[in-house]
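1st attempt posting a full record on here, be nice pls
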Amino acid sequence: MEAPKVPENKIPRKTGSVGTSRNTAILVLCIGIAAFLWLLIKLSDNYNSRVPVSLNYSNLPDDRVAVRELPNKSEVMVNATGFKLILARFGIIKIQLPIAYRENLNQHFLLASNIESELADKMPPGYQLLGFSPDTLYMQFDKKLTKKVAVVFNGKVSYAKQYEGLGAPSIMPDSIEVSGPERLIDTLQYWYTQPVELLELNESKKGEVLLQKPMFSSISLSLDKVNYDVQVEAYTQITREVEIELLNVPNNKQITPYPKKVTVFIHVGLSNLEAARTAKISATADFKDVNLKKDRFVEVKLGGYPAYMKISNFEPFNIEFIVYN
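the predicted structure (as tokens):
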């Protein structure tokens, strides 16, 4: 026997789960409102807590500078409502306290306790100042000194094959003025640039480079950057034969060197190539300390050549000689 069919629009619906969800939501909302009201009550109470403050200095001496950096931020212990503590902690309310410099040559620090009553009047409404952290402000000053020092190029330079630099890199300007506490500036001799790398150069290079930043905020520079100039040119090798000049030969002796010339290998830039072909080079053999009876060789020395020429090698270093009476 077949079971009776229930029309689709007559199927009963479950309502228990919907009612349970609605009740849960109402309960959560009530708990949230209660927690919020509890929080408002608690935040209305007063608490002791640390909050950040900014320090603004006044009456600083014009002819002297601080040896160590003056702190521009600190913390103070205050009593305030929870609301105000949160506003101060997150910087919504900014607390700024003025610190007036007091001349005291025998004391280089300021105890916060000595100015606490003065600063208490500077607190925003609703904040009671209880104390400082740290409780000591170091305010040591020294005579301000300005000194001119040389700038040193702190660079790593290399050249492509068959190229070289025309002297050391130049700096413009080659000196700067440095100002700061006398005890730090008095022994200062030079100031470095920031590191820079110029690698495999095959042409001259110019540019700007920053100067190193001072380690102390009390030191200032007249410039923060300088210009550098690295002159580059190609070079080549040439060979020259130079006759050997004999020195301090005894009057009663006649000496014949062998060979009579040395071969000199010269490294020179292309701009000085033609001059290097005819420039004077002195090759000498000095017999002052030579024992003509026992010694068979004498050393050859080179000199007297222009600075633009670099002697990479020469040969022979020592020559034989024959003595005639």
